[in-house]
């Protein structure tokens, strides 16, 4: 074969052949790109920083990611394997900065070709301020009411305070953290629950687990009615003797199952008495005060005993 003639033939009209080859390459690439699939999803935006500054203004928490590539390559990629972040390590002073949104591949996204990654937004504007930390107390946040006839008598939280981190201009307005609502509806016995701490500002970071253990003590309410200065009646006194009480009245405390029963109870006359039937001569005696009948109620008297002076002469001294 005459290589010289072959080369000369191949070189004929070479500009046209170069153009044709170039067009063929362009058509191949265009066809290849047009046949690629596109996949969209959103991932969290990470703020990477090492200094004493932290974000002090709102910023997009999620970034829309677009993957372009072959279908059998891009759809198996896990969303967590595309990390989106902004690098704030180069900033040392508080202020407002515009920074690009960057991305990196890991895991299932490594080695996938062709793969075109785009993010939206491509840059963000972020304010930075000095980070400070402080202790704040934890306050219980209740919802609903315990069952009728019961009361939340005491409760405890553990921990009772936590450390929070945040930008200096926000931290001055935070004095406590509330728990998520603790439901009391229908409860009638002690209970324990682990509750989350409410963080209403995403720029504030709560150290630790972000939870507190709540212990509540619930007791039955005993309806009580107090009646003051109920007169004491002397019974069984010999007609030849006279009695003088000290004091002449007592206070009565009544307990029942329902408040309605207490409110409707009418205190009868001579409800409180002292029995002098065993006394047959003058002197000073201390006698127990007796109460009348009050069904389904517990009755106590204060004082439980009274002093009684007995002298000759019929009647009871006023």
Structural class: mainly beta
Q: Shape, please?
A: rod-shaped
Oligomerization state: single chain
Beta-strand percentage range = over 45%
Give the topology string: H per helix, E per strand. Answer: HHEEEHEEEEEEEEHEEEEEEEEHEEEEEE
> How many domains, in number, for the residues?
3
Name of the level-1 CATH class of the largest domain = Mainly Beta
* Rg calculated over all Cα atoms: 44 Å
**Which residues sit in consecutive blocks of at least 5 with pLDDT less than 50?**
none
Can you tell me the CATH architecture of the largest domain?
Beta Complex
Which descriptors apply to this entry?
RNA Polymerase Alpha Subunit, Chain A, domain 2, single chain, 5-stranded mixed β-sheet, mainly beta
Describe this structure in words.
The longest helix has 21 residues, at 14-34. The protein has five helices and 25 strands. The chain has helices at residues 3-11, 14-34, 71-74, 168-171, 259-264, and strands spanning 37-48, 53-55, 62-69, 82-87, 95-100, 102-105, 115-120, 123-139, 142-143, 150-158, 161-167, 177-178, 182-183, 191-196, 205-206, 211-220, 224-235, 241-246, 249-256, 272-275, 283-288, 290-291, 297-302, 305-312, 315-316. Strands 2, 5, 8, 11, 12 and 15 form a six-stranded mixed sheet that branches. It has 318 residues and is mostly beta strands. The chain folds into three domains: 33-121, RNA Polymerase Alpha Subunit, Chain A, domain 2 (Beta Complex), CATH 2.170.120.30; 131-220, RNA Polymerase Alpha Subunit, Chain A, domain 2 (Beta Complex), CATH 2.170.120.40; 224-316, RNA Polymerase Alpha Subunit, Chain A, domain 2 (Beta Complex).
